[in-house]
Design brief:
Layout lengths: L2 H12 L4 H20 L1 H6 L2 H6 L3 E10 L5 E10 L13 E2 L4 H14 L6 E6 L18
Parallel strand pairs: 3-4
Antiparallel strand pairs: 1-2, 2-4
Helix pairs in contact: 1-2, 2-5
Length: 144
């Protein structure tokens, strides 16, 4: 089995139930396959692919807020950062009911390697409600 295939299997094993992230990793690894296989021994020794596909940092946090009916809601937030080697990471917010850790990792992994720059990190919040007119952060102070 090639180094590329081994790393992909490792990613799937370490990140179960994250098919979006698996897809991004597969695309990145396949795009690098020719170069990696030409220098496999050196890249394997340096664990280059493992470092490319493993986030530097992942945070899961709560996001309490008050909905339009005055009811406090608590949703999950995610922060994922792949690489800060060339400086601070770009960020962004994604508010959508479908957000999960695998999707955020997919967005960053795909973007980082597609544009050959370090997007670095992204925040995301899992939000089930569609109306966020009075989205208020209960912690961290103020409107978001």
């Amino acid at each position: 089995m090639s180094y590329v295939d081994e790393v992909f299997e490792l990613v799937v094993a370490k990140n179960p139930a994250q098919p979006e992230f698996h897809q991004a990793v597969k695309e990145v690894l396949e795009s690098l396959r020719v170069v990696i296989e030409a220098n496999e021994e050196e890249y394997r020794k340096d664990a280059l692919l493992e470092r490319i596909v493993t986030p530097e940092r992942q945070l899961l946090f709560r996001v309490p807020w008050v909905d339009d009916k005055g009811q406090v809601q608590v949703n999950n937030g995610f922060r994922v950062q792949f690489n800060s080697a060339i400086g601070p990471s770009k960020g962004g917010l994604r508010l959508h009911p479908s957000v999960n850790l695998g999707i955020i990792k997919w967005i960053i992994e795909a973007g980082t390697h597609r544009e050959l720059i370090s997007m670095g990190g992204k925040y995301a919040f899992l939000v089930k409600q569609q109306s966020l007119e009075e989205y208020v952060a209960m912690e961290g102070g103020g409107n978001v």
